[in-house]
Amino acid sequence: MIIVTGAAGFIASCLVSRLNQANFNDIVVVDNFSISKKERNLQGKKIKEFVDRDGFFEWLDENYEEVEFIFHLGARTDTTEFNKDVFDLLNLDYSKKVWNACCEYQIPLVYASSAATYGAGALGYDDDEAIIPLLKPLNPYGESKNDFDIWALEQTAKPFFWAGLKFFNVYGPNEYHKERMASVIYHAYNQIREKGRLALFRSHNPNYADGEQMRDFIYVKDVVDVCLFLMHHRKNSGIYNLGSGKARTFMSLALNTFDAMGAEVNIDFMDTPENIRDNYQYFTEANMSKLRSIGYDKPFYTLEEGVQDYVQNYLVPGKFY
């Protein structure tokens, strides 16, 4: 059996689909299934068992001998949430329990970290584990992810294989339930469809023109392909960046979305909300040499390819992955 936590969420539900495509059908999905707005993400998938996240460790104590791999992707991901206790409970403490169980039962583990750990990028975006304790995340979400990375690296007891993945700006099908935390592409599509226009955040940094803020956008299909690679690879444990390796502007994202929709370009700008303005990242770009060095050689979707696939094959027809 393969366990996927946070399974009804965006990336994890896409991973379940990708595992099914690779003929892995004994999938145990773990989540808070009382959140009905996510339930469509798992419809039609081959799943062996549904386990509530609060009962997961009791379930694992009884079934660990049958578990082949754990993907721990469940987390609170709201970057505008500032209640540290929420992140300590769901991101830090829960992840420690997953780690310790994997050590006790010798189960390999891949878990979700985040590019939010890099903060404003003062130390760059290299997944060098030596700099992880020096990073300065900009919000409690990023802090919780970095705190766990630091904790994991400090442990003497480790799963025989483990990998933490610093997800950059992931976009793609199955993210509808994330609401304000969904990708800019998702929001752009809906704005253009409903209003025939798109509003981007104005730049409040003199080094960047409006719309020229840059992010490393990575398509979710690349993310789940890397997860499968690591499940089969099972060596070279450590913390890895997972982005496309190429920063692109929000203007490029917008133009590609208009193009994929066959719509006339109509863009204006609005002020970045004050509650996130001071902690706004103007540039992120993953150094992907570490993952490439262990043998992952599949090319990543370009922004053009990813936006076109997402818009035309999922958003327009209203399909899930």
From TrEMBL:
Domain NAD-dependent epimerase/dehydratase span(s) in chain numbering: 2-243
InterPro entries in UniProt: Epimerase_deHydtase, Heptose_epim, NAD(P)-bd_dom_sf
UniProt: substrate binding residues: 169, 180, 187, 201-204, 215, 280
UniProt KW keywords: Carbohydrate metabolism, Isomerase, NADP
Pathway the protein acts in: Nucleotide-sugar biosynthesis; ADP-L-glycero-beta-D-manno-heptose biosynthesis; ADP-L-glycero-beta-D-manno-heptose from D-glycero-beta-D-manno-heptose 7-phosphate: step 4/4
One annotated GO molecular function: NADP binding
Presence of the UniProt keyword Isomerase in the record: yes
Cofactor(s) required for function per UniProt: NADP(+)
Record note on quaternary structure: Homopentamer.
Similarity comment text for this entry: Belongs to the NAD(P)-dependent epimerase/dehydratase family. HldD subfamily.
Enzymatic reactions: ADP-D-glycero-beta-D-manno-heptose = ADP-L-glycero-beta-D-manno-heptose
SUPFAM superfamilies reported for this sequence: NAD(P)-binding Rossmann-fold domains
Protein name: ADP-L-glycero-D-manno-heptose-6-epimerase
EC number(s) reported in the record: 5.1.3.20
Catalytic site: 141, 178
Domain notes: Contains a large N-terminal NADP-binding domain, and a smaller C-terminal substrate-binding domain.
Function recorded in the entry: Catalyzes the interconversion between ADP-D-glycero-beta-D-manno-heptose and ADP-L-glycero-beta-D-manno-heptose via an epimerization at carbon 6 of the heptose.
Protein's GO biological process: ADP-L-glycero-beta-D-manno-heptose biosynthetic process; carbohydrate metabolic process
Binding site for NADP(+): 10-11, 31-32, 38, 53, 73-77, 145, 170, 178
Cofactor note: Binds 1 NADP(+) per subunit.
